[in-house]
Amino acid sequence: MKIVVLDGRPLAPERADWAILEDLGELEVYPHTPPELLRERSAGAEVLVTNKARIGAEILGARPGPRLIALTATGYDCVDVATARRLGIPVSNVPEYSTPSVAQYVFALLLELCHQTARHGAAVQAGEWTSQPDFSIRRARLVELEGKTMGIVGFGRIGRRVGRLAEALGMRVIHHGRTRPESGPDAESWRVLNDLLAESDVISLHCPMSPETAGLINRDRLALLKPTAFLINTARGPLVNEADLAAALVEGRLAGAALDVVSAEPIRVDNPLLHAPNCLITPHIAWATDEARERLMKATAANIAAFLAGRPINVVNPAG
């Protein structure tokens, strides 16, 4: 069984880090695979392991072709799952490895927006506190979260965890998903998307990427937000129309945004958000704690082992 890891560097940069897969077959690990080398490196592989390398019909339909696509991720939009299903190739993902880390990171971003700790720390290092007589200096608006409303778009595992953390900080939580729950507390806190945007002091995005959610946050919807609101995106970059968000920040129609994902990664030099005021951008690291990466590696190995045993698990494109 030949196992090829197409883009291993973000998860584990050293070959030794992938030793858990060596007992499962003949292993090849590539730190990164550009599109022009994808066909060559995939040739003869029975298991393709990918995070962002795109697996389309050409790779899936090769003869001999892969028998399993193992994703080192939860999202699977980089794989042509419809073609894989038609060809009988299971695609296995890792659905829950990053939930605690991403939820925690939402609040790392949010608290930075609220307190501007990096900016104030830099002011101290620059001598701004030393050079004046007051016991306290402020270089930005400071915001308390208790009593504010957290609006969560996408109320799956991560969204729910974010909601619990928000409630621990004294926030009121409302949410939006594709369908309204029929009864109970979740039904009471569900909102139509536009109502959620207008009501929230903080909006945190946790919905999957799909044709329906592309550009979900655009100029018209940004116009619904309070000018004091914060927008946080740790889900998928294309959920946000970046030009529209940059314009809202420049025009002061939004207090701030914090993004761990952008529409094209790595971020392009012409991304309008790079020069937008009150916009914090980090390089897609919400998922990448040591603990989450260890869970991801173990779960990927378990997916491959289950397939080899004839009982594939975490299959996103089941036959039928």
Radius of gyration: 22 Å
Strand content: 5-15%
The percentage helix is 25-40%
Strand line-up in the sheet with most strands: 7-6-8-9-10-11
Mean pLDDT: 96
Strands, total number:
11
CATH architecture of the largest domain: 3-Layer(aba) Sandwich
Low-confidence spans: none
CATH class (first level) name of the largest domain: Alpha Beta
The biggest sheet, with number of strands, parallel, antiparallel or mixed sense and barrel status, is: 6 strands, parallel
* CA(first)-CA(last) distance: 26 Å
Per DSSP, the total helix count is: 11
Short description:
The protein has 320 residues and is of the alpha/beta class.
Characteristic key phrases:
2 domains, 31% helix, alpha/beta, Rossmann fold, 5-stranded parallel β-sheet, 6-stranded parallel β-sheet, 320 residues, 11 strands
Descriptive report:
The protein has 320 residues and is of the alpha/beta class. The chain has 2 domains: 2-97 and 290-308, Rossmann fold; 99-281, NAD(P)-binding Rossmann-like Domain (Rossmann fold). 31% of the residues lie in helices and 13% in strands. The protein has 11 helices and 11 strands. A 6-stranded parallel β-sheet has the order 7-6-8-9-10-11, sandwiched between helices. The relative contact order is 0.13. The model has no long low-confidence stretch (mean pLDDT 96).
